[in-house]
Amino acid sequence: MSRFIGILALLLPVSVLGDDPLPIHPYLSSKYYASVGLFLPDQDVKLSLDATLSVPEGAIIPYYDFSQTFGTKTSDETFSAEIGWRFGKKWQLRGQYFRVEDKATATLEEDVEWGEYIFNSGSSVGAGTDMQVTRLFFGRHFRSTETGEFGLGIGSHILDISAYLEGNATLSGQDVGFVEERASISQPLPNFGAWYMHAFSAKLAVMVRLDWLSASFDKYDGRIVNAAASLGYSVGDHFGIGLAYNFFEIDFKIDDEDWRGGIRTRFNGPYISLTGYW
User: Fold this and answer.
1) What does the alpha-carbon distance between residue 262 and residue 81 come to, in Å, rounded to a whole number?
2) What is the CA radius of gyration of the chain?
3) What is the pLDDT of residues 6-22, one digit of tens each?
4) Is pLDDT larger for residue 198 or for residue 21?
5) Ranges of each domain in the chain
6) CATH architecture of 2-101+134-158+190-277
7) How many Cβ atoms are within 10 Å of 226's Cβ, its own excluded?
8) Do the beta carbons of residue 187 and residue 239 sit within 8 Å?
9) Coil, strand or helix: which one is 2?
């Protein structure tokens, strides 16, 4: 997180250098933009599912690294999309979406406790995860020139997350044969955000943004971070290409009837995109 704040601090003075006006980059002059591209993240997925009726205060919840324990991927490629709308003189509404899913089968090297069941060492177990992230952000710029802008806002990350294990298992020490134990949540998580954009010319621009929240509310306790640093090149007034580095992380304990346990997940990597402005 500190790296993104440092980049932001270094870029802020650039906008005040030079007296000659520059042509306006289409990101600053357009009312709408839409971006589609390929996100190539490294992924770290650690999950836990507890069978008790509530997560006790201070309890140690066993997390399982899905790539190490079940052989799921440590990197992937997935479709991602972003949209933006400027309205009024100072306001913006943005959205972002990506989805990462995976499944694998492995022979367990140790017992795994997942929900009500124990999958024993030496057994073959199938595992899968499906994570969809929708980001909505409402912001206001507080500094805007023909070459850049700085703004703050509030938003929400809507998380749709599911995970399962399947295989022969035991329950209370008794063999129960083949079972599938699945957990899922769909939950909006609020956050604060900031962004800074600087256009070196009508064609070349950089942007950094950061969404963050660390809080305990309702049935959730933890933090969320979504950050990006990007370089964009416009080809004419209505089309551009971009290269970004995206970082997304959630670390939450959950006490919900559909998922009691925890989620520690990180996706980080390059994002290559095509953008339209109008």
Assistant:
1) 27
2) 22
3) 444 444 444 434 444 55
4) 198
5) 2-101+134-158+190-277
6) Beta Barrel (2.40)
7) 23
8) no
9) helix
